[in-house]
Every structure is written in C-alpha cells, then in structure tokens.
Amino acid sequence: MSEEIVTPDAVEMKLLKNLTQVVYVLYALSYFAGITAIIGIIINYVKKEEVAGTWLESHFRWQIRTFWFGLLWAVIGAATVVFLIGFAVLFANFCWIIYRIVKGWLNLNDNKPMNF
C-alpha cells in the first residue's frame, strides 16, 4: 500500500480550491441575501494574486466577470423596468448568473479550469 505524500503546495492548492468553492456558494446565496456577493467579490480581489498562474486563476476571472456583468445587467434591467423590457432583462440576467455559477462550480469540482 502506498501512502500519498502531501506537499505544502498541494495543501495550499486544496485551500485555494476550497476558497474558490466558498465564493461560488456566496454568489449563489446572494439571491437570498445580496450582501454575500459583495463578500465573494472582495475575496476574489484579495486572493487574486495567490491563484495567479494556477488553474484556479481562470475561476477567479470567471467569478469576477460574473459579478460585474451581473451587476451591470441588473442596473440596466432595474432602470428599464418602467418600460417593461426591464423584467425580461432581469430574468435573463438571473438565468445567466445561475448558469455561470453552476458551470463554474461543476468545472471546479472536476478540477478543470474555465475556458472562455
């Protein structure tokens, strides 16, 4: 029986992967408590340098873009609700964000980077 050797780099990557998963959870929870997405984006920016050069960097980029484009379309949707088109924009934005959270989370679970 062989024992798995755990290196400090492997432990660090495991911790960073867990942190990336936490950010996906925070984004998902933002539909119930909006503040969690803000916590998630702060984590993305604070830990961005630590994932630089790893496959997790693509997940951070994916999460950051999800936050900012989601916020942009939420503002556009809210601003155009009076014209009724805003409801469609908000619904499309909701679906798009859910898609990005699920796709990112599944790729993270499979240890795959995000492809753009």
Describe this structure in words.
With 116 residues, the protein is mainly α. It has one domain (8-109). It has four helices and no strands. The N and C termini lie far apart (41 Å). The mean pLDDT is 93.
Short description:
The protein has 116 residues and is mainly α. It contains four helices and no strands. The longest helix has 25 residues, at 85-109.
Which keywords apply here?
mainly alpha
The largest β sheet comes out as: none
If helices are DSSP runs of H or I spanning 4 or more residues, what is the number of helices? 4
What is the alpha-carbon Rg in Å? Answer: 17 Å
Contiguous low-pLDDT stretches (5 residues minimum) are none
Mean pLDDT: 93
Give the count of structural domains.
1
- Span between termini: 41 Å
String of helices and strands: HHHH
Topology, number of strands: 0
Question: Structural class given helices, strands, pairing?
Answer: mainly alpha
Strand content: under 5%
- Quick one: overall form? elongated
What is the share of helical residues? over 70%
Topology readout:
Layout: H1 8-29, H2 35-51, H3 56-79, H4 85-109
Helix pairs in contact: 1-2, 1-3, 1-4, 2-3, 3-4
